[in-house]
Amino acid sequence: MEATVSSCKVVEGGGGSSRSRSQFSMQFISNLTDLQELEEVYGRLCAEQNDAESQLEMLVNQQSSIENKMTVLQRMGPNLQLIEGDAEQLSGMISFTCNLAENVSSKVRQLDLAKNRLYQAIQRADDILDLKFCMDGVQTALKNEDYEQAAAHIHRYLSLDKSVIELSRQGKEGSIIDANLNLLQDAEQRLKVIVAEKFSVATKEGDLPQVERFFKIFPLLGLHEEGLSKFSEYLCQQVANKAEENLLLALGTDLSDRRAAVIFADTLTLLFEGIARIVETHQPIVETFYGPGRLFTLIQHLQVECDRQVDKVVDKFIQQRGYHRKFQQVQNSMMRMSATDKIEPRELDPILAEVALMNARSELYLRFIKRRISSDFEVGDSMASEEVRQEHQKSLDNLLNHCLLSRTMQEVIGYYITMEEYFMRETVNKAVTMDTCEKGQLTSSMVDDVFYIVKKCIGRALSGSSIDCLCAMINHSTTVLESDFREVLCNKLRMGFPATTFQDFQRGVTSAVNIMHSSLQQGKFDTKGIESMDEAKLSFLVSLNNVEVCSENIMTLKKTLENDCTKLFSQGFGGEQAHAKIDSCLTDLASVSNKFRDLLQEGLGELNTTAVKPQVKPWINIFLSVSHNIEEEEFNDYEANDPWVQQFIINLEQLMAEFKTGLSPVIYDNLTSLMTSLIAIELEKVVLKSTFSRLGGLQFDKELRSLVAYLTTVTTWTIRDKFARLSQMATILNLERVTEILDYWGPNSGPLTWRLTPAEVRQVLALRMDFRSEDIKRLRL
Amino acid sequence: MSMEDYDFLFKIVLIGNAGVGKTCLVRRFTQGLFPPGQGATIGVDFMIKTVEIKGEKVKLQIWDTAGQERFRSITQSYYRSANALILTYDISCEESFRCLPEWLREIEQYANSKVITVLVGNKIDLAEKREVSQQRAEEFAETQNMYYLETSAKESDNVEKLFLDLARRLISEARQNTLANSAASPLPGEGKSIGYLNCCNFN
């Protein structure tokens, strides 16, 4: 039954989609026989009917609103027609406007074209007119010898578009214009010849206004290079004339003249100043009439003449001053090292000063032209590519580095360095052999002299403004100080401080005082031939002072040179690496200072072991012969007649007095520090070899206090620390009973830090005769 | 302690005739460049390169000297503080080889006795123009107790090897010297004549 119903539904569904129709066909109902089925269908049909009714009702309800809408639509009808009409009209208007606009713009374009052509035509006409004007103008100007005007016409003609000229040839008047053009070209050639002639006449006559007049015309005719080269020729001639004149004057200078010693440097200076003045005066003309970037060409030409003149001056310098001969002599002297036929360093002094001055002038001049050319290129190359700039920079560097002037000066400086080195080494040697020590002076004369010489030589190299030369002289100074001079001081120290025993100590002091007295009367004493022991002693002390001063002087020299070089660099001297080079050379120089410092420490150690220790040790050993195992009576006796420490202090005082006067405060302080360490160590040794009573311990404590008090007054170093172990030993030796140590030991030590090990404490306790060894052993430390 | 970040500092000076390629060797090593048409060096040039050898920073201060005669007195002043000298000649130029004894005399005269000298035959890229055979140069180097190496700055052949081998040898020499110095402290006046500085004693 269910299946039938559903199949029927399918059939119905396939036939139509109307929802109002019943799902049951009449036929289906008629065929129904079963009541139940009928009732069921009836029920359903009833439900369907209800549905249909409610739907109908809904539709009826909607009727009014639909009718309203219909009325509105009907009213809109005529409006829509209107709108359609309007739209069509609008479309028509738009297309019309569009057409109109297109028409107008095409006309404007045509107008533009026409205007451009008109302009071109006017331009051409102008050009052609100009051309004609030029043709006529050149003739008149040439006739009137108004070369500037003629050149201006030619310039105009040269800057015309070539096609204009072609065009004007093709015109109706072609033949006439052709003829005129020929005339113009003729005129151009003629003008070129005339200008060249007039220029050469003007240069011959030295007529500067005329020379400048025609110099300005060359670039108008497109002859930039020719103009510059001809003008340079003229300038070179002037440079040459003036230079020859100056050289002749120089050669005729009286020997007594104030400038006689530097006359060649002065001649070079005049030459450089002359060229600089020429550049200064003519740079504006070149810039204005030839454009920027042309100065290089002018200076390149001038440099050739400069080189030629420099060569002459330097040649005369070499000849007159015997520069090469002196160099040869220096070389021979350096090779042979024999005292005979050595060239006297003093002879070299003036010539070295002159060379330094010559080089300083050359550097100044080269820097001047470098600056000028660089800034001119900068203006000219402001729009140029990086390659062009580099190319220009390269040609400038090439000009500066490889011009004959540079090469000549490099050669002269090459000889200079060798001679300056010789001068320095020989003068230093002389200062060493002439070494004297003025009384009351801690150092001897050679230290001041040697540093004066080194400073002078480096200073002279510095004044020459050549960085490489300066570096070389710093290097040579480093060598002279580190090898030669340090060796001298080393040898003096190596002779040692003569060892003096206790017995001849007293005599030693008095004779040293005598020597001081006698030297006081003489004003100075000689340290060369060391005959007596006292002189040897003084020589040793002076050498120690010398070493210290050297170390300080080297650092001062380095700082001074650093400042000087900074000044030099700030003036623009030296390439990019100059700073690094100088720094490296100065660092090497400064490291020599440390080597002198090391030498000082070695010397002091030597002095302490050979002079202080052999004396101090016996004095300390006397302690052993003074019994510290004493009773009240002896203790009181010691109170009245000090058995050891006062004499020891007096001895020390006398021993150190010699050093205090003879050594610089810094070195003396170093020495006393070494001595106090020595005393502490030695005293500890003898204390451990002695025996003590309670009062003996007290006596030792008193002695130690006096000693420490005295030593504190003679040194600036803190000595408490060095004597810490000894004071702790004194504390132990002063105890009432063995166990009292526990009041100071371990948790009871308070601020005291024990420098003695428990074993050492026991060892010291055992020195007390009245302490029983069992008690000491029983201690828990 | 020094603030400089290296363990060793060595000075190396290149010497030899003009035009044998000293500047090119230095440029190749320090900048990796081979500038064609290099002009003659003026005076001395100065380059620095720090290399690492077995974890240690080694600063090489390389002095490139002018080969031309007129700069000789400048270049000579650098010999004494040099830790190593690289004596260079051009294998395609007999003349530059024949001048070697003269250079050795200079070294003898000016350099310190502990200096390490390396002989370098440069320009092996010009093999077809070779004028000095390798064997001849090796024999010469042996008689003079020099280490010998052939290089090409242009092709970058053996350039790294030259400087790095040299740095290694300088380190081992420096180590030996430190050992020798700590074993026996110098007597007064016998200062260390070697010019090497490491970070500890450099200030």
UniProtKB/TrEMBL annotation, chain A:
The keyword Transit peptide does not apply. Its main location: cytoplasm. GO terms for biological process: Golgi organization; protein transport; retrograde vesicle-mediated transport, Golgi to endoplasmic reticulum. Transmembrane segments: none annotated. Keywords: Coiled coil, Cytoplasm, Golgi apparatus, Membrane, Protein transport, Transport. SMART domains: Cog4. GO terms for cellular component: cytosol; Golgi membrane; Golgi transport complex. It is found in: Cytoplasm, Cytosol; Golgi apparatus membrane. It is a peripheral membrane protein. Residues 184-494 form the COG4 transport protein middle alpha-helical bundle domain. Residues 35-69 form a coiled coil. Residues 1-21 are annotated as: Disordered. The keyword Membrane applies. Belongs to the COG4 family. This is Conserved oligomeric Golgi complex subunit 4. It comes from Geotrypetes seraphini (Gaboon caecilian). The lineage of its organism: Eukaryota, Metazoa, Chordata, Craniata, Vertebrata.
From TrEMBL, chain B:
It catalyses: GTP + H2O = GDP + phosphate + H(+). Pfam families: Ras (PF00071). One of its GO terms (biological process) is Rab protein signal transduction. Belongs to the small GTPase superfamily. Rab family. GO terms for cellular component: autolysosome membrane; autophagosome membrane; cytoplasmic vesicle; Golgi apparatus. The lineage of its organism: Eukaryota, Metazoa, Chordata, Craniata, Vertebrata. Its cofactor is Mg(2+). This is Ras-related protein Rab-30. Its EC number is 3.6.5.2. Keywords: Cytoplasm, Cytoplasmic vesicle, Golgi apparatus, GTP-binding, Hydrolase, Lipoprotein, Lysosome, Magnesium, Membrane, Metal-binding, Methylation, Nucleotide-binding, Prenylation. It is a lipid-anchor. It is found in: Autolysosome membrane; Cytoplasmic vesicle, Autophagosome membrane; Golgi apparatus, cis-Golgi network membrane; Golgi apparatus, trans-Golgi network membrane. InterPro entries: P-loop_NTPase, Rab, Rab30, Small_GTP-bd, Small_GTPase. The small GTPases Rab are key regulators of intracellular membrane trafficking, from the formation of transport vesicles to their fusion with membranes. Rabs cycle between an inactive GDP-bound form and an active GTP-bound form that is able to recruit to membranes different sets of downstream effectors directly responsible for vesicle formation, movement, tethering and fusion. RAB30 is required for maintaining the structural integrity of the Golgi apparatus, possibly by mediating interactions with cytoplasmic scaffolding proteins. PROSITE patterns: RAB (PS51419), RAS (PS51421), RHO (PS51420).
